[in-house]
Specification:
globular, 32% helix, alpha+beta, Aminopeptidase, seven-stranded mixed sheet, single chain, 174 residues
Length: 174
């Protein structure tokens, strides 16, 4: 899918990725590199696959353009990572991916979801705020810094999953 103009019209699907094949890991890594300034390695991504995690893939036609990894232990979830390929950012796809991820957290029994986000990532902060996440603290120099980027603090955030109308938020972005 080459054109952003046509991306909103193409079939979009969300799928749980259960089998971390070499091909899938390569695709996840390509998204990771496109979406983040300090991307995880392919091995980091591979290590997240376990019984209590889910990798939710966002596909445009058959092209993987985004993914999120969540982990649920008892009734608490962590959003480990979420990202959409740079060329598809700003089209509402991140909203759809986050809504699907939080719905999956609820299906797995979570009542709260936690995450960390760069203090400078205003786009993500706005998205998380729309979903009811609130800042609970700051982790100093959480992001190590690389590729010429200095270390950066992260906000810790939490969302009460029992109070969220995910479908309403998702529909408002369509």
């Amino acid at each position: 899918m080459g054109s952003r103009r046509h991306a909103r019209l193409a079939p979009l699907s969300l799928r749980i990725i259960t089998e971390p094949t070499t091909e899938i890991l390569s695709q996840l890594y390509q998204v990771e590199v496109s979406a983040h300034q300090e991307p995880w390695t392919q091995d980091d991504i591979a290590s997240t696959f376990s019984d209590n995690t889910r990798c939710i893939g966002l596909y445009l036609k058959e092209e993987l353009i985004g993914f999120a990894v969540i982990c649920v232990v008892v009734d608490e979830a962590d959003l480990y990572t979420i990202g959409v390929c740079k060329k598809y950012q700003g089209l509402g796809f991140g909203t759809k991916l986050l809504a699907a991820s939080l719905r999956e957290c609820v299906k797995m029994g979570a009542t709260r979801c936690f995450l960390e986000v760069r203090v400078s990532n205003e786009v993500a902060l706005h998205l998380y705020d729309r979903f009811g996440f609130t800042i609970t603290g700051t982790r100093k120099n959480y992001y190590q810094g690389s590729h010429g980027n200095p270390p950066e603090d992260a906000y810790t955030m939490v969302c009460d999953l029992t109070q969220q109308p995910f479908e309403d938020i998702e529909a408002a972005s369509a």
